[in-house]
Structure formats: C-alpha cells, structure tokens
Amino acid sequence: MSDKIKVTIDGIPVEVEPGTSILNAARQIGGDIVPPAMCYYSKLEGSGGKCRTCLVKVSKGSEKDPRPMPKLVASCRTTVMDGMEVQNITSPEVIEARKGVVEMLLINHPLDCPICDQAGECHLQDLSYEHGAATTRYEFDRRTFDRVDIGDKIQLHMNRCILCYRCVFTADQITNNRVHGVLGRGDHAEISTYIEKAIDNDFSGNVIDVCPVGALTDKTFRFKNRVWFTKPVEAHRDCPTCSGKVTLWYKGEEVLRVTARKDVYGEVEEFICNTCRFDKKSTNDWVIEGPRQVSRQSVINSNHYDTLQPLPVIKKNPELMEANKEQFERATKF
Ligand code: SF4
Ligand code: FES
C-alpha cells in the first residue's frame, strides 16, 4: 500500500510524501498553479513564512476532516493532509489577497526599477507585474537608508529589502561566520552588520543570488549593463572549493558577471564560491557548455535569445559563425 498522500491543487491531483508542504506539492505539478514565493527557498532550512505571497485557500482540510481552513494559509509552511483540496489561481479570494500582499511589500520598496541592477530578474518586479494593483493606498514616506558596502564586493541597499531573511539563512547555513542579521523590529527592522563589517568568507557572495530584490548587489557588476542586454552561458571549471558550475553573463566577448545557476523558481542549483564568482571573469577560465535556457516569458529573452548565441560559443563553431554572422558583426561593433 502506498504511504503517499493525495492532494488536489486547482483541480490537479498529485501524490506526495507525508510532510510535504502545499507549495512543494504544487511544484511537483509545476506550471501556473505554483504559488509565488518571495521568502521560501528550498535550499535554506527554516526559510519561509515571512512574506505571505504564497497564500492559498484550503477548501477541504483532509479526507478525515473535510472542513475548509478558516483563513488563507501560507503554502510554504502548511503541510498537506490526505485528501486535501487547495485553490490557488482558481480562487478569486487568493488573487485579491495576493494583490494586498504585493501592495504591502511595496509600501517601503522604492519604485526604482529603471536604475536597479536587479531589474529584469527581480521577483518582486515580476510579482507586482502579475499580481499587483497599479496604485497604492499608502500616504506616508518610504523608509530610506544610506547604501552600505559590506566588504569590497557586496553592496546593501536597504531601501529595497523586503526582509525575507534569505540572506541571513544563507550566511548561517553555508558560511561559518555570519556577521549580519535583521536588527530592530517592525518598521525599524533592517538587515545590518551593525558596524558595516565585511561579510568575509568563501561563500559570502551567495547572499547576492538568494536576494529576491536588488537589496544585495554585486559591486563588480553594478551599473555595468541591463541584464536583458547580456547573454547567459553555462560553464564550469575544476574548482577545489565549490562545484564550479556557473552561469556566465556575456556582453560581446566580455564576462560581465558570474552567478550560480538558477532553477525555474529562481533558486540556485548549487551555491558557488567567491573565487568563481568574483575572480574568474575571463572565458579562458571556463569550459563553456552552451547558452543557458531562459524562460520564454523572461525579459532576458526579449531579443529572441533562443536564436542568438554568445560570441565565445559562436566562435568555437564555424556553422554557428555562419548562421550568426549578422549578430557577430553587430556585437563586435561595440
Ligand atoms: S537583503 Fe535581500 S535577501 Fe536579505 S532579507 Fe533583504 S530582501 Fe531578503
Ligand atoms: S514564500 Fe511563503 S511566506 Fe514567503
């Protein structure tokens, strides 16, 4: 007899292991019915429960107790029960509540996407585009902070932080000396090292990748380019510290930045070390695997990315060279 649990999400049944959260059950189905998640991160133990973007309606609690749950629940923190029925995109109540959550997240977050390095790959930008209301009811000034350099490679722009705690969990769980955290409570809460101490260890750069907004940015990439003008390429190297599997972001022949590879939910597949991220910015440092698949909806795909190839990849292959002649000429003009 199977000891799996059957749950139905937006009318689609799925069988999952006991203890699975509704969000992860939805991820097993995939597609539109997966609730958005701004704070949950499957690779970080204890994450979730902070942002409320993953709210869903449980219209049937379980086979044993079919009563609906009285309020919307955070799907990242609610485990499935056998026979549970959940509504996400099929519930007008959830859609309405999510609009409110986005409005709440934007109460203090500046609308500075045109100058923010995260634009084009910002989860809050996507979320407000898909679920947000065009107006806000908030009349007060937003909280503002000075920008803080956390060491020489990372900059914290606290104005943009949504207090998801992902960077805190990252520093706690994959580095051995966390020196930053959330200080203060309520409207005074902020990410800080208190004395602007450098986050200084081999894996500290991963806080940049887990940050869902532009609060923690890579100083070696800041203001260098818009992400949709760059071409992501998968590459690897034999690294003694991490897996060495990364995404290189090219402009022409130049590697503008190096990040961990991310999955369909924007989570890193494997954390990478600072040497790979900050010190290996030459094509010669890497074994190029090929262009990274980018979702059709992504702004990074805006110039028909699937037909364009990064120059180092083109140059290695005469057929690609011929097929991409026009792109090659255009790119080498800059
Ligand atoms: S800095 Fe980024 S990752 Fe850290 S809590 Fe703020 S939004 Fe989350
Ligand atoms: S993702 Fe569930 S509360 Fe943030």
From TrEMBL:
It is found in: Membrane. Keywords: 2Fe-2S, 4Fe-4S, Iron, Iron-sulfur, Membrane, Metal-binding, NAD, Translocase. InterPro entries: 2Fe-2S_ferredoxin-like_sf, 2Fe-2S_ferredoxin-type, NADH_UbQ_OxRdtase_ferredoxin, NADH_UbQ_OxRdtase_Gsu_4Fe4S-bd, Prok_molybdopt-oxidoreductase. SUPFAM superfamilies: 2Fe-2S ferredoxin-like, 4Fe-4S ferredoxins. Residues 93-132 form the 4Fe-4S His(Cys)3-ligated-type domain. Its cofactor is [2Fe-2S] cluster; [4Fe-4S] cluster. Residues 3-92 form the 2Fe-2S ferredoxin-type domain. GO terms for cellular component: membrane. SMART domains: NADH-G_4Fe-4S_3 (SM00929). One of its GO terms (biological process) is respiratory electron transport chain. It comes from the Bacteria. One of its GO terms (molecular function) is 2 iron, 2 sulfur cluster binding. Belongs to the complex I 75 kDa subunit family. This is 2Fe-2S iron-sulfur cluster binding domain-containing protein. It comes from Pedobacter aquae.
